[in-house]
Amino acid sequence: MNTQPIIGISGCLTGSAVRFDGGHKRMGFVMDELAQWVTFKPVCPEMSIGLPVPRPALRLVQNSDAALRMRFSHAPHEDVTQKMADFTGAYLPQVSAFSGFIVCAKSPSCGMERVRLYDEKGNRGRKEGVGLFTGALLERYPWLPVEEDGRLHDPLLRENFVERVFALHELNTLKAHGLTRRALLDYHSRYKLQLLAHDQAGYREIGPFVASLHEWDDLDAFFVAYREKLMAILKKTASRKNHTNVLMHIQGYFREHLNSRQRGELRDVILHYRNGLLPILAPITLLKHYLAEYPDRYLLKQNYFAPYPDVLGLRLTVN
Predict the structure, then answer these.
(1) Which residues pair with 72 in a beta bridge?
(2) How far from the centroid of its chain's Cα atoms is residue 79's Cα?
(3) d(Cα 84, Cα 108) in Å, to the nearest integer?
(4) Which helix (H) or strand (E) element contains residue 59?
(5) Alpha carbons 151 and 153: distance in angstroms, whole number
(6) Helix 281-293 vs helix 240-251: angle between axes, to the nearest 10 degrees?
């Protein structure tokens, strides 16, 4: 099992000159910061079906029966849909080992949303398509963290994506080492506060499901169901309100150890975060300080305090 999360990525986002115009869309955060913590597996679906660089632009054409076709803009009757489907079908099995995928926005092969559609006469339609490669990826792996380059400029979506990548990687690693009931329960226990920060209703729903683990004879089947539920909860971006509830909950563990001044300081930092005056890094840093001073077995195991490498600095910008 790879010690780092494996992330698939559209080749142009790594800086490779594989776009139709011979250019690239290198992402600074991805290649300069995230790359040292993950293993990237670049792919360019259009080059993989034998197209050159540069090449004529491709477009998605929606025919009369609503089916999507991939055709060249300069030669609308030259269809490469089947070639793309054949490549995608052969490529996707390896993605089962991946912990995430970053795709190129607006691309007829890789776009995740809002890809321009055309009709068979070449008329421009709405931006409501999904690239053929990414569409198949999302259908086959609905639990997989997938984002496109444009959306990753949003600090909240960036943090959420990276968090999900590392959560799935840990779950994949657990499975690779051999599933046991104890390992699954321990994993879920470590993620309780993290889930609560993302979706309180989802947190309450997944609890009874995990409690039913002893009723499952097939651990692999439980794993598949649990993975889908877990990743669906984490996909919902953590809100300031939910984070505040979690921080207040953690604060209660130190009530007996702190004097009135310290309790007031901690409360004020949490409230300043709730009111948007401080990033979430501030109350978490103070809580980690008190956790080092007054260790608690349950809190020390919580992934909430370090869901990904701190040096990525994602909690400096996310509220």
Answers:
(1) 58
(2) 32
(3) 11
(4) strand 58-62
(5) 5
(6) 20
State which amino acid sits at residue 2.
N
pLDDT digits (tens, 9 = 90+) for 104-120: 999 999 999 999 999 88
Stated pTM of the model: 0.94
Q: Among 56-65, 182-191, 259-268, 273-282, which stretch is predicted with the lowest mean pLDDT?
A: 56-65
Nearest to residue 135, comparing CAs of 230, 233, 60? 60
Euclidean distance between CA atoms 252 and 256, whole angstroms? 8
In sequence order, the β-bridge partners of residue 9 are: 42, 102
For residue 156, which amino acid is it? Answer: L
Cα–Cα distance, 286 to 266 (Å, whole number): 7
Per-residue confidence (pLDDT) for residue 66, from 0 to 100: 72
Q: Which amino acid is at 61?
A: V
Cβ(257)–Cβ(294) below 8 Å? yes
Angle at 236 between CA 233 and CA 242, to 5 degrees: 90
Q: Residues 250, 193: contact at Cβ < 8 Å?
A: yes
Q: Is 109 helix (H, G, I), strand (E, B) or coil?
A: coil
Residue 243 burial (CB count, 10 A): 23
Q: Residue 152 is which amino acid?
A: L
pLDDT band at 213 (very low <50, low <70, confident <90, very high): very high
Q: Beta strand 58-62 with 68-72: parallel, antiparallel or unpaired?
A: antiparallel
- 22-28, Cβ contacts within 8 angstroms, sequence gap of 24 or more: 22/53, 22/54, 25/104, 25/149, 27/102, 27/149, 27/152
- Asked whether the beta carbons of 303 and 280 are under 8 A apart, the reply is no
Q: For residue 72, what are its two tokens?
A: 């060249």
List all residues 6 or more positions away from 178 whose beta carbon is below 8 Å from its beta carbon.
none
What is the distance of C-alpha 119 from the center of its chain?
33
